[in-house]
């Protein structure tokens, strides 16, 4: 689910909500906090997989011609 913050500055990029949730998920994993690995390494190990797939689907829908009619996926 998306996290909304009152004092957060507006991000006008595509798939901004999914991007922010994926970022927060990675920064809060034990892989980053306890093991001290980078978020990129933790993502490659399979942490936050569902948000990664959602972000990929959102970005892919931007290239899909049908998205003009249906709208972008994501939030």
Automatic annotation (TrEMBL):
Q: Which InterPro entries match?
A: Cyt_c_oxidase_assmbl_Pet191
Q: Fetch the Pfam families from UniProt.
A: Pet191_N
Tell me, what is an example of a GO biological process annotation in this record?
A: mitochondrial respiratory chain complex IV assembly
Q: Does the keyword Disulfide bond apply?
A: yes
**Which keywords label this protein?**
Disulfide bond
Point out the coiled-coil segments of this chain: none
- What's any one GO cellular component for it? mitochondrion
PANTHER family in the record: CYTOCHROME C OXIDASE ASSEMBLY FACTOR 5
Q: Which family does it belong to?
A: Belongs to the PET191 family.
Q: What does this protein do?
A: Involved in an early step of the mitochondrial complex IV assembly process.
> Know the name of this protein?
Cytochrome c oxidase assembly factor 5
The uppermost taxa in this organism's lineage are: Eukaryota, Metazoa, Chordata, Craniata, Vertebrata
